[in-house]
Design goal:
Number of strands: 10
Structural class: alpha/beta
Number of helices: 9
Radius of gyration: 21 Å
Strand order of the largest sheet: 4-3-5-10-6-9
Largest sheet: 6 strands, mixed
Amino acid sequence: MNGTLIQTFLMLAQTGRFTETADRLFATSQTINKQLTRLETELGCTLFLRERNNLTLTKAGEIYYNAFKEIEQCLSRAKTEADLLLAQTENRVVIGELELLNSYHYFAPYQKRFLADHPDISCVYHNVPLWVLLKQLRDGLLDLGFLFEEDIGNYLDELDFIPLAEIQYLLVVSSTHPLAGPGSDYLTFRNETVFYSADPAAGKPQLEQILSSVGFPTDHLEETDNIMSSCSMVEAQQGIAFITEGCRLLDEKRFRTYPTGHSTRLVLAYRRDNRRPLIRQLLEDLTGSVPLR
């Protein structure tokens, strides 16, 4: 058993399809099928029920899915902690960004200027869920974090931020959704199921507030494991989801998006007590003054 087999299994569980998994892992469906067969042989059980083009986890598959997810998260935490250790001994900045957010799109001008003045410095990025990003920022495992201003409202005693850009919420549907016609707008889908990935600290309230602000009911919500699993449900035409501008999914032809008119502010957050000279210098270059207290 190796990391490739586990990655294939987790992606199959999220997409439920060989073809989509193959596309996302840049492989062929035949290769993905062989990898699954090998993993099932090594584990001695059937992981999926195969029904036409769809795959559904068996009871044993659910057990292994939860176990492998824990392993994946553990390795991610270990990598972050190792990067932090390196950052403390080398000229590295460890940066967290929300799942699927292309923060470089907004940060590139600042980063290029800073790195031009400090060529010996490197930046390491981690793409993580919101609750992980907040925890790692507060625990000092990240130097900086890209998230939205409303996300840090409960942590302003520990975190501060620099505003970067106003970006808009978009409704995302499958490109083949029957309601996605030429005359549609985001309100066309107001009675659809809304898929979301929950932040354990915030839960539904923040999403309900967003839905209310764009004229949507709040009683059609369905939680999924993560953003990718939400988007897999959307792609299967089982509902809709909300993302923001700057999401990497906007470049994929599998989805169609509709602007909602509801915006949020992207910020660069940091610990108030972070005294690393490197971070102080970076923030000073961004703001023209030293924001750290």
